[in-house]
Every structure is written in C-alpha cells, then in structure tokens.
C-alpha cells in the first residue's frame, strides 16, 4: 500500500512541536538486538531516527488503535506497542530508566487521534455550557480556521451548507471533527447545533474501551491503564 | 521510510462516515482521473479500487492544504510539495463541501489548536483550567506555549 511518505517524513521534521522526544532502544524485527534510536512523537505518529540529528526518519509507527504494555524482557524498562489486528507486529522498546519508561508509556497510551478528539469534544461541550449560562446571543468565539496551515483558495462564504442562515464569523467550522456534523452556526443567537452521537459502529464500543457517554469515565479508564502498568512495574521490582 | 503497513490496512477497515466513490487524480504529470472509493479514517485518507478490500494507498492529512478547485472539485496538496496536488471530483457541490470540511478537520494538529483555544477560552471565562480535573494539564500535547520547544531536546523524562 502506498503512503505519501515524503510528506509524512516532512511532518516528522517540520517545526510543529513534537509531543515527546528521546532515545529509546528498539528491538529489531528479525535481528533481535536492541538498537538505540532517536524517537519523536507527533500526534498519533511515532517516528524513529538513526541519530538525534538525522535529517529523515528511518521509520514511523502509526499508533492509532494501539495498546501499550509492559513486557517481560531481559532488557530493563521494556514496554511493547501492540495492535489488535491479525498478524500485527509487536514493537518492543526499552527506555533508559524508570521515569523515562513511565513517561513514554503514558504519552504513547494517549497518543491516538480518538483520544484527542474526545478531549476536544469535552472542552467544546464545557465551553458551550459556560456560554449558554452566560446568556446566548452575540457572537461566540471561534478559533480562526486560517491558522491551521490550511487556506481556502477563495474566501469562505458565510452561508455554509447552502442554508439561509448566515452566520457572521462562522467559517465552515464548529470545532467538531465528526464528519456528520452540520457545520456552521444556527441562526438563533449563534448556538451551534447539538453534536450528533459519536460515529456509528465506532470502535469506542469495542472490548478495549468502555462506554464513552461520560468523558470522566473514559478518561479514568485511560488513566487506570497507566496506573495498572505502573503498579505492575513496581511489583516486578 | 518504514511504516507499519499491516496496521494501517487494518485501520482502513474501521467504520467511517466519510466514504464515497469519487474521481481521483494523482499529483504526477500524466496521471488521469480514476474512480476510487475514498475513505476518511482519523487523519488518514485511504483510497481503494472499487470493490477491492485493501486500499491502494493512504494519505496522512497533516501539514496539507485543502482547496476548492471548482464547484465540484477539491484538491489536497502537502505543504512540502505545494505544487503537487491530488484532485478529487465529487458528484455535487454539496458533497464537495462536505469533503473539504471534513478533511480540514481530520488533522491532529487542527484538533490540537482547537483544544488549546477551548482551554484558553474556558480558563479566561472561569479562571479554571478545564484539564486539571482530569489530571492532564501538564501533558505536552495540550500545552499552550509548546511552540518554544526545541526539536532536539531530550524530553524523555517529561
């Protein structure tokens, strides 16, 4: 399968800030030796470079849908990235000390697009509640969609979706990444339409994740996973 | 550059609300429009030959620009090669708009900016950091001032 590799490699080294960087030991696929590599986590992509100052990554691990576990290994401070997919490769990594290992496990466990999307949705909901409480009417603050490194060839039209409701500063954006959402603001005092339920048949109802109706609960679940790993590690000492 | 292809193919099978047959043309000179099943899953755009199970390819939708080319056509170009455009032909203006809206939002970096915006705004209105109750205030990915982070710095202990 093709991938836009050049652009993906560019994403690795461009000036968007990484979520985490550091040296880790990575176990080879066939050669079972661990090699020290420079890792860069950006979003749901984990890049690895031969050296800290290498221009291009050797490779990338797409982290979406993965789980991170401690693993039994001769190597100390080892953990594994696993996928719920047939014949998936298990990526074995090892950190240089306990703090680094915990930190990486935590960062990687929450690196998915899905997780980020949930947090954004939750904050969007909170902001709407606050704004509603403060009284509807008047323009609601919206982020400037031009700042996302994305430009329109023509200036965005205020009449989104061909509907008659013109929204002043509402540029085809409502902060929700669900594609099924009606974008744009409603005409009645600027309140955005209610967010539709999460994508149908979404993997969030899968065995690895609890019901997501309550963000707190889901967040606790993510946190618990990390806590459990921590306890496991401490017990193994 | 190596990548975990099997897992990516697996990802392409996830349910998605944005999947449709569109005309697609690659960025190379001489590429022609071909009918493809185009499917948006998280920040990837997969494309399949019609009725095939495995995608031919995937585009990571970070650092890209989506533009309307005309009423029914949009393009995706990546910032490192801005002249090379992938073209997509839709069946209607409405469909075209739906796709462009969705693709713009299908970027991790886009979501991060939104999050920072919401976080700042909620803090401004309430004096409280909304992430604190979840214990994730300090996570790098949610930081407002992460622009000053240097690439080469070893943040492994953060």
Key traits:
heterodimer, A: 237 residues, alpha+beta, PH-domain like, seven-stranded antiparallel beta sheet, 4 helices, globular, B: 158 residues
Write up what this structure looks like.
The complex is a heterodimer of chains A (237) and B (158). With 237 residues, chain A is an alpha+beta fold. Chain A has a domain of 109 residues: PH-domain like (Roll). In chain A, 27% of the residues lie in helices and 18% in strands. In chain A, β2 and β3 form a beta hairpin. Chain A is globular, with a radius of gyration of 21 Å. About 29% of the residues of chain A have low confidence. By secondary structure, chain B is of the alpha+beta class. Chain B is built from three helices and eight strands; from the N terminus they run βαβββββββαα. A seven-stranded antiparallel β-sheet of chain B has the order 5-4-3-2-8-7-6, covered by helices on one side. In chain B, β6 and β7 form a beta hairpin. Chain B is elongated, with a radius of gyration of 19 Å. The two termini of chain B are 28 Å apart. About 4% of the residues of chain B have low confidence. At the A-B interface, β1, α1, β2, β5 and α2 of A face β1, α1, β5, β6 and α2 of B. Chain B: It comes from Poecilia formosa (Amazon molly). Chain B: Pfam families: PH (PF00169). Chain B: This is Pleckstrin homology domain-containing family J member 1. Chain A: It is found in: Early endosome; Recycling endosome; Golgi apparatus, trans-Golgi network; Cytoplasmic vesicle, Clathrin-coated vesicle. Chain A: This is Sesquipedalian.
Specify Rg of chain B, calculated over alpha carbons.
19 Å
Largest sheet of chain A: 7 strands, antiparallel
> Into which percent range does the helicity of residues of chain B fall?
10-25%
First-to-last CA distance of chain A? 43 Å
* N- and C-termini, Cα separation of chain B: 28 Å
Q: What is the count of DSSP helices of chain B, taking H or I runs of 4+ residues?
A: 3
- Measured on Cα atoms, how large is the radius of gyration of chain A? 21 Å
The CATH homologous superfamily of the domain at 5-113 in chain A is called: Pleckstrin-homology domain (PH domain)/Phosphotyrosine-binding domain (PTB)
Strand content of chain A: 15-25%
- CATH first level of the domain at 5-113 in chain A: which class? Mainly Beta
- The fourth-level CATH homologous superfamily of the domain at 3-109 in chain B is Pleckstrin-homology domain (PH domain)/Phosphotyrosine-binding domain (PTB)
Number of strands of chain A: 8
For the record, the CATH class of the domain at 3-109 in chain B is Mainly Beta
Q: How do the helices and strands follow one another from N- to C-terminus of chain B?
A: EHEEEEEEEHH
The profile of the biggest β sheet of chain B is: 7 strands, antiparallel
Strands side by side in the biggest sheet of chain A: 5-4-3-2-8-7-6
Query: Helix and strand string of chain A, N-terminal first?
Result: EHEEEEEEEHHH
Number of helices of chain A: 4
